[in-house]
Amino acid sequence: MMNRRLVAWLQAAPLAAVFAIFFLIPLVLIVTVSFWQATDYELIPAFTPQAYLDLFSGCGGGADDLCVTLSTYGSTLKFALLTWAITGVVGFTVAYFLAFHVRSTLVQTVLFIVCTVPFWTSNVIRMISWIPLLGRNGLVNDALLGLGLVKQPVEWLLYSDFSVVLAFVHLYTMFMIVPIFNSMMRIDRSLIEAARDGGASPWQTVRHVVLPLSRTGILIGSIFVVALVMGDFVTVGVMGGQQIASVGKTIQVQASYLQFPAAAANAVVLLAVVLMMIVALMRLVDLRKEL
C-alpha cells in the first residue's frame, strides 16, 4: 500500500512542481507586493492595505457617481459579456455545422485547419490588419461612400467599443469552437435520430438535445473567453486607440510607472473577480462528472 502511495506521489510530483513554480509562487509574490509601500524611488517591504484603499478611494458615491476603479471594471465586464455572447453564438453555430453537417473526417480536419489559419500570425498583426479595413479612409468606409449609404466616413468603426469587441471576437472565437465541437462529437447520434423519429423539428432537436448535451463545451469555452478578455490589455490599447479603459490596461500602465503595489492590488482584485465568475459558471455544470 505504501509503495502504491509513493508511486502516486512521484507521478504527481512533476505537475505539482510546475504548478508551484509557475502559478503558486508568482501568485504569492503578487499578493505580498500588493501590501508593500512604494515611493517615487523605491519599494518598501511592509504590510499595509494602502494600495487597496487607494484602489477603491472615492467609490462610495452611489451608482450615479462611480469611481474610476468601478467604471474600469464595468467597462471590462461589458467587453467580456459582449464577447462571450457573440463568440458563444458563432462558436456553437460553427461547431454544430462541423459536427453534424460535415460527414467526412478529412473535410472536418481541413475546415479546422482553415479556422486556425489566423492563429499562424501574432495577435498584434491580426489586430493591426483591421486598421486599413475599418479606418476613416479604409475599405469599409470607401465601400459605404461608394454605395451612397453614408455621406461622410463612419467614425465609430475604429478606435471604439465596436472595434474592441470585434477584435476580441476575432481573436477568441476559436477558444469557443474547439470545446463545443468536442462535446458535440461525444453526443450519441441515436439520440438525434430518436428526436427526429419522435417528430421534433431541427430547432427543437438543437434546443432540447444538442444544446443541453453541449453545455460542458460551452462552459469550458466560456471560461477561456471570459478569463482572456478580462486580463487583455493589448487589444484594448490597439483597437481602442489608447482611449478606452480596461483593468488589464490599468495594471500595465501602473507597472510601467513602477507603481508595483497598486498594480499588484489591482491584479489580486481582478483575479478574485475572474474566480467568482468561473465559480458561478461552474455551478451550472459539474465538470468533474461531465469529464
Automatic annotation (TrEMBL):
UniProt-listed Gene3D superfamilies: MetI-like
User: What keywords sit in the KW lines?
Assistant: Cell membrane, Membrane, Transmembrane, Transmembrane helix, Transport
Specify the protein's topology with respect to the membrane.
Multi-pass membrane protein
Q: Read off the InterPro entries from this record.
A: MetI-like (IPR000515), MetI-like_sf (IPR035906)
Main localization, broad class: membrane
Cell location = Cell membrane
Q: Which residues form the ABC transmembrane type-1 domain?
A: 73-281
| GO terms under biological process | transmembrane transport
Could you name the Gene Ontology cellular component terms for this entry?
A: plasma membrane
Residue ranges annotated as transmembrane are 12-36, 79-98, 110-131, 156-181, 217-240, 260-285
User: According to its UniProt record, what is one Pfam family this protein matches?
Assistant: BPD_transp_1
Q: Write out the similarity annotation.
A: Belongs to the binding-protein-dependent transport system permease family. CysTW subfamily.
Protein name per the record = ABC transporter permease protein
